[in-house]
Design brief:
Layout lengths: L18 H9 L18 E6 L5 E8 L2 H20 L9 E9 L7 E7 L5 E8 L2 H13 L6 E4 L2 E5 L4 E2 H7 L8 H18 L9 E7 L4 E7 L23 H10 L2 H21 L1 H11 L7 H15 L10 H17 L1
Antiparallel strand pairs: 1-2, 2-3, 3-4, 4-5, 5-7, 6-7, 8-9, 9-10
Helix pairs in contact: 1-8, 3-8, 5-6, 5-7, 7-10
Length: 347
Amino acid sequence: MGTKDIEISRKKPIYPVIPSLQKYLHVYQRDEKLPLTYHDLLSFDETVPVLDKTGKDTLWETPLYPSSEIERIHSGLKIIYAILKASGNIRIVEHKYIDRIDYCTFGNTHPFRIRIVNRLNDVYDYFYVKQTDASRIYGLELEHILSPNQVNYIVDRKTLIEEHTAGIPGDVFANWHFDKSDYNPIRIAKEFVKFNERCLITLLGDMRSYNFVMQITPDFDDFQFRIRSIDFDQQFYEGNIKIYLPQYFKDNYPYVRLGIDNLTEQSVLQYQQEERSSIVHRARSERHRIAALRDASANDQISTPEKMAELRQNLAEHFKDKNYYKCKSMTDLVELNVKNVIRQIKL
């Protein structure tokens, strides 16, 4: 495995939800009527930067809203949280308040991060308000269907609400936790290999270390690790295949180095096979939902013809499979990826 800097489109367009995708969202209960929109949260007068504990700029800002708007915005956000977490049962927010709203201009969807706190015990939670982007929705759905992770989100026209994914940011984990004596480096390297394989099959791009988190679960004799994406903006958009392989990003070199130092070629192949088997199992159990998502996205143009042609050629060469040249959309490429994995497992 090697690493180097890869060029990624910084001005990727935000793609609207087409009617077939809207129908899919309704069938699978992802659409809701919300009391507040993304546009409503843009009504702030000014912002102040959010600094971390060391005084470093986090690239997030705290919006300052007119006093006449604060009660309406906070009330709406509490109802949204109730919809996201409890199907609209507002009893769960009776003792909660909105502690802060943060805004990020870094990234495609310019998200708002909402911190909500239980006043009875000071336990807090986060959720996000973003601009709806069809690319991101497809990524969230593929993550929910084909990964070991459940994803919770809701959509109301141009507003997307996402549940917070807890975990240690991948770059922070690499810088501060690799040297912990009670963390097994083989388990961490194994998880990165599986994550790398899953990203390529589902065509989830731009998984640099700050776009995923590491979740750590104590087991009875060791720690278990799981990498989870927190960014789906680059879902099958770019043409360069390396963008869908986290191993090629220089930001991920600590993880690549860990694999080189602790894994053999045979063990890497074994972990890749394990991940493919898991994907096949999920694909079979969710075959109707996958078919519905395929149909919903079949005619959606969520990339450029040039990028589509480039990725099609890259995949054909990478897998040595001419069938990729028959694909006419990004959806076709993902579908062929999954079908090929199923065929491999049957052999």
